[in-house]
Design brief:
This protein has 267 residues and is an alpha+beta fold. The chain is built from 6 helices and 14 strands. It has 2 domains: 209 residues, BirA Bifunctional Protein, domain 2 (2-Layer Sandwich), CATH 3.30.930.10; 46 residues, SH3 type barrels, CATH 2.30.30.100. Strands 1-2-5-9-8-7-6 form a 7-stranded mixed β-sheet, sandwiched between helices. A 5-stranded antiparallel β-sheet has the order 13-12-11-10-14, with no helix packed on it. Strands 3-4 form a two-stranded antiparallel sheet. The termini are far apart.
Length: 267
C-alpha cells in the first residue's frame, strides 16, 4: 500500500526540494490536479501521488488507465524562477534520468532512456513522463508527471511493447517480487532532487547531456521520428545537443528535433 507517512519521512527535510507530499486514493490526473493547485498558489516542490487515476494522459493527448494498486502515478510541481525558460526543456529529461537511476538502484534492472523521456528495460517501456508548463498568478510553473508500471500482469499491459517491474522480477527469478511502490517513489524523487538542484546552478547543460547519453538507448540507433501532421523522418540518432534536442543524420543531412515520438528501427 502507498504510505504517505513513509513518503513524508523519506522526502521532507529542511532545505530540500520537496515541500509537501500528498497521497490520494483516486483521481482523474495527478498532473491536472497539481496544475490547478499551482494556479491556486501551491508551493514549489509539491508532490501528489495516487493509487488509481482514470484520466491519465501521455504525449499527444493519449490516455491510459491501469488497474488500482498496480502502478505509480505521481506528479511534482516545480517553479524554477531563476532558470532561463529556454532551459526548461530539460525538466522531463531530468525526470527520465531520475527514474532510470532509481530503477537501477531500487529494482536492480538495466533501465535505459528512449528519447525524450520513456524509460525502457530490455527494450520494453516501463515508465512514461509528461511535463506541462502552467501559467499561474505568480509566474510560470512546470508540472512533471511520471507513471511507472509496477504490478501489471502481462494481460494488463497497455501495449505489447510495455512491461512492469513485477514481470521483470519474475523473468529474472520465478517467485520474486518487485520493490515496494513506496521505495520506488522515494528513490525516484531523491534522484530527481539531486539532478534538479544541479541543473538549477549550471550555466549550461552540457554535463547533463553527457549524463543522459550514458543512459541512452536511442543514440547510435536508426530511428523514425513521428512529427505533427503525420510527418515522419528516418535516420541515425547521432547526438543530443545542449538543449536536450535529438540530432539525427538523415539522407538530407543533420536534423534536430525538440519534440516527437521516436521509434527504434532495426539497423
Amino acid at each position: 500500500m502507498l504510505d504517505v507517512a513513509v513518503l513524508r519521512r523519506e522526502l521532507l527535510r529542511p532545505g530540500g526540494l520537496w515541500s509537501t507530499v500528498d497521497v490520494v486514493e483516486r483521481t482523474g490526473s495527478t498532473n491536472a490536479d497539481l496544475a490547478a493547485a499551482a494556479r491556486a498558489g501551491a508551493p514549489a516542490g509539491s508532490v501528489l501521488v495516487t493509487d488509481f487515476q482514470d484520466a491519465g494522459r501521455g504525449r499527444q493527448g493519449r490516455t491510459w488507465v491501469a488497474p488500482r494498486g498496480t502502478s505509480i502515478a505521481l506528479s511534482v510541481l516545480l517553479r524554477p524562477a531563476e532558470v532561463e525558460p529556454s532551459r526548461w526543456t530539460w525538466l522531463p529529461l531530468l525526470a527520465g534520468l531520475a527514474v532510470v537511476e532509481a530503477l537501477r538502484r531500487a529494482a536492480d534492472v538495466p533501465a535505459l532512456l528512449k528519447w525524450p523521456n520513456d524509460v525502457l528495460v530490455d527494450g520494453l517501456k516501463v515508465c512514461g513522463i509528461l511535463a506541462e508548463r502552467v501559467e499561474t498568478p505568480t509566474g510560470p510553473a512546470c508540472v512533471v508527471g511520471m507513471g511507472v508500471n509496477v504490478w501489471l500482469a502481462a494481460d494488463e499491459l497497455p501495449v505489447p511493447t510495455a512491461t512492469s517491474l513485477a514481470l521483470l522480477a519474475q523473468a529474472r527469478e520465478p517467485g520474486s517480487r518487485p520493490p515496494s511502490r513506496n521505495l520506488v517513489i522515494a528513490t525516484v524523487l531523491a534522484a530527481f532532487e539531486l539532478l534538479y538542484q544541479r541543473w538549477e546552478v549550471l550555466e549550461d547543460d552540457t554535463p547533463l547531456a553527457a549524463s543522459y547519453l550514458r543512459r541512452s538507448d536511442t543514440l547510435g540507433r536508426r530511428v523514425r521520428v513521428h512529427l505533427a501532421g503525420d510527418v515522419t523522418v528516418e535516420g541515425r540518432a547521432e547526438a543530443l545537443d545542449a538543449d536536450g534536442r535529438l540530432v539525427v543524420r538523415t539522407d538530407s543531412g543533420l536534423q534536430t528535433f525538440g519534440a516527437g515520438d521516436v521509434v527504434h528501427l532495426r539497423s
